[in-house]
Amino acid sequence: MRKLLYLIPVAVGVGALLYSIYFTPESGRPFIVRAVAAHGGEAKLAKTRLGIFKGTGTKNDAHGFASRINWEETYQQPDRLRRVFEKTVQGQPTTHTFVYRAGKAWTKIDDQEPTVTETGPGYHESIACPLGHLVDIYLNKSTLKPLGETLVDGRFAQGVSVNSSDWENVELYFDTNTHLLVMIRGRSTDPQGGPLVRERVFGDYKTVDGIQVPGVVRLYINKQLMDELVVREARFPEHIEDRVFEKP
User: Fold this and answer.
1) Coil vs helix vs strand at 39
2) First vs last Cα of the chain: how many Å apart?
3) CA geometry: angle at 183 spanning 172 and 244, to 5°?
4) Which of 8, 20, 79, 111 fits a 20 to 30 Å CA distance from 223?
């Protein structure tokens, strides 16, 4: 009888171990932990919550025509973003200004009156903000699920789906060798109700203040290249004047 009583907790322990091995869903958290370390660590990535980026690139219109652009963006997580594109159309310079602030987005072309829309957070569209968001995922214990390996820009990458209060059903992909973020994929529907897949692909990383920052960012919508931005300057100030994010 004593032997039987002794064996019961042993059997329960073995059963719990087997259940955890065969039935508990695999966690994607180790990939986030490695990515945070690869990009510079938690303390340094926290600096990316404020940033100023400048560069050049190309932007494609609806007909696939590519224009050379100069661009600049200034942001402050979680609800401030200002982006300016300058390009030449038919020999005439034109400037597009986008400002997102606390649920509203203004879009202005040259001296025209800006259009305004109610919208959700836009900070994930800026270049460096996803790096700071890795820390949020790491600290908030978001729901993470491994997606397996795939190829991104010819490199093997490990995918992780993220479901958190800030990012809902977003897929992150990390280089299997460097553990750096190489792609963000989000899914939604277009105005006609069709599928819309947005992919931001990051590459050519460089070190800025001890932080691994992408030097090239490409945006694809439904596999069509929309723009390619090349970073020429990046910095993370301790303070940004609030007037920078006023209505354009």
Assistant:
1) coil
2) 82
3) 100
4) 79
> What's the pTM?
0.82
Q: Mean pLDDT throughout 95-119?
A: 90
Question: What is d(CA 76, CA 82) in angstroms, rounded to the nearest whole number?
Answer: 9
CA–CA separation, 85 vs 107, rounded Å?
11
How confident is the model over 159-217, as pLDDT tens digits? 999 876 566 678 999 999 999 999 999 887 766 777 888 899 999 999 999 999 999 99
Of 175, 110, 164, 114, give the one whose Cα is nearest residue 138. 164
Classified as helix, coil or strand, 189 is: strand
**184 part of a folded domain:** yes
Residue 20 domain flag: no
Helix, strand, coil percentages (3-state) for the chain, rounded to 5, are 25, 50, 30
Q: How far is CA 44 from the centre of its chain?
A: 17
Q: Is 3 helix (H, G, I), strand (E, B) or coil?
A: helix
- At 41-77, the pLDDT tens digits run 999 998 998 999 999 999 887 666 788 999 999 999 8
